[in-house]
């Protein structure tokens, strides 16, 4: 069995190395999915990319991948990406097509991390 780990990173990168080191011995592949702009238009710290590249150079991460959260997500895509088992309560009282785009982007980033680990 092989184990991969993926981190979604926008801020808090000062803790990332410690998190990675805590699973180094039990993971075979490690990736970070990062954003340079938040869902609300804020820019990442000026040190984020340097930190991530340093973690790759040190052998702590195998790969980094930039995620662009600027694109619009259509209601039909929201519906397609939401589990058919999700209840209204799971979705905060919303229907799948009404789910916030931040939620869908988070799902996309987790899936991207999973695929990169494969």
Give me some keywords for this one.
three-stranded parallel sheet, alpha/beta, 118 residues, 4 helices, 14% strand, single chain, globular
* Main beta sheet strand tally, sense and closure: 3 strands, parallel
Uncertain runs with pLDDT below 50, 5 residues or more? none
So what's the oligomer here?
Answer: single chain
Strand percentage lies at: 5-15%
- Distance between the terminal alpha carbons, to the nearest Å? 12 Å
| Number of helices, where a helix is a run of at least 4 consecutive DSSP H or I residues | 4
Strand order of the largest sheet: 1-2-3
How many β strands by DSSP? 3
Task: Tell me, rounded to a whole number, the average pLDDT.
Answer: 91
Q: What is the gyration radius calculated from CA atoms?
A: 16 Å
**Helix percentage:** 25-40%
The dominant shape is: globular
Number of domains: 1
What structural class do the secondary elements suggest? alpha/beta
Element-level helix/strand string: EHEHEHH
What does this protein look like?
With 118 residues, the protein is an alpha/beta fold. Helix content is 36%, strand content 14%. The chain is built from four helices and three strands; from the N terminus they run βαβαβαα. A three-stranded parallel sheet has the order 1-2-3, with helices on both faces. Helix 2 (48-57) links the parallel strand 2 and strand 3 (63-66). The N and C termini lie close together (12 Å). The model has no long low-confidence stretch (mean pLDDT 91).
